[in-house]
Design a protein that fits this description.
Elements lengths: L9 E9 L5 H18 L1 E10 L11 H14 L3 E4 L5 H11 L2 E4 H12 L3 H15 L3 H11 L8 H37 L4 E7 L5 H9 L16 E7 L2 E7 L9 H6 L1 H8 L3 E7 L5 H14 L7 E6 L25 H9 L6 E3 L8 H19 L16
Parallel strand pairs: 1-2, 1-3, 3-4, 5-7, 5-8, 8-9, 9-10
Antiparallel strand pairs: 6-7
The protein binds guanosine-5'-triphosphate and magnesium ion.
Guanosine-5'-triphosphate (GTP) binds next to helix 8.
Length: 404
Amino acid sequence: MIEKQLIDFEKTVLIGIINQDQNEVQSKEYLDELEFLTYTAGGEVLKRFTQKIDVPNPKTFIGSGKLEEVANYVEANDVGTVIFDDELSAGQQRNIERILKVKILDRTGLILDIFAQRAQTSYARTQVELAQYQYLLPRLTGLWTHLERQRGGIGMRGPGETEIETDRRIVRDKIALLKKKILTIDKQMAVQRGNRGKMVRVALVGYTNVGKSTLMNVISKSDVFAENKLFATLDTTVRKVVIKNIPFLLSDTVGFIRKLPTQLIESFKSTLDEVREADLLLHVVDIAHPNFEEHIDSVNKILDEIDSKDKPTIMVFNKIDQYTHDSIDKDDLVTEKTKAHYTLQDWKKTWLSQVDEECLFISALNKENMDEFKAVVFEAVKKIHMTRFPYNDFLYQEFDESTS
Ligand SMILES: Nc1nc2c(ncn2[C@@H]2O[C@H](COP(=O)(O)OP(=O)(O)OP(=O)(O)O)[C@@H](O)[C@H]2O)c(=O)[nH]1
Ligand SMILES: [Mg+2]
């Protein structure tokens, strides 16, 4: 699935755990995702280590025996970075770094790094920078104590402590400054959004890499950056779309992910305003992904966090061209039907019974079922539009249909 390019990939290993919350299969799937994240960040995964452990070791997260195994591998294979699927405390990160003597990242740090790499506009960069400083602040002590220990471990409350304080102050000032900067841009953006009047607003939401930008391009003929990497889109793009004679605004925004760092949700609040202020959500799902149901849950959780869970929502199951299911032999009376055996029709039935609105099955890439998609979205938009413009619907006849 992952195309390797001929550039220098940083050599990495991944570390995950197996416990009551995540069994072996889930752990593997999480590490698959972590590998995709690593690849997106410019890394190459040489090996994965997993450990069955119910309570993580407070000092080193994984047990000392496992860590030694990792240390040997890291040394023998010239590994540059070790990435943990779970969030590490400042202390754990420092301890592990001291033992492995290479860069240690956790999932949050990795996601922040990708966001930093991908931020294109100064607005996105400011938001990412804020998230990075917020992530750094509680970890500063660790960094300095680390240096103190290297110097011999004496004078912990001496100059080292002052340096921590100075550093903390610098970071806090920086955070305050960034927040102010974002506030100014927010105001400008709120004015811009206000200027759009009462036009119906539709937002594409969904897990990262499900095809939101591709769908946006198909519907609005815009040229939004889409690629097979995570978080291709960081900024929000808004386009005016007209289906039949009804115009509406369609926005494409940052993708969600399991355990999206809270710092990121917070600093991306303004980007997510587009979702919060939308009248209708199109929740795009990659039905060809083995974990798509879990993805839906993650997205709903984040929608809940930004107070957008109860909006009218149409579920859009994308990538039907890639979906495959296991088949059961007609004469086979033993095999029990599991979700792996579901056909697209089975899924449609299951979801239709779960959601109030229509649910759609499309392929944005191959433009399959786009007529049905347009018809359903049109009806939903029309419903909202009529409540907003009960008398002067005719006013909109003049909009050109070139984008429909
Ligand atoms: N097979 C198949 N691939 C698709 C389809 N729609 C999109 N893709 C591919 O999926 C990948 C991700 O598409 P994007 O449109 O960038 O996804 P996104 O949801 O905008 O991703 P982020 O911006 O990273 O959150 C690209 O490689 C697309 O070509 C589809 O219907 N079928
Ligand atoms: Mg995108």
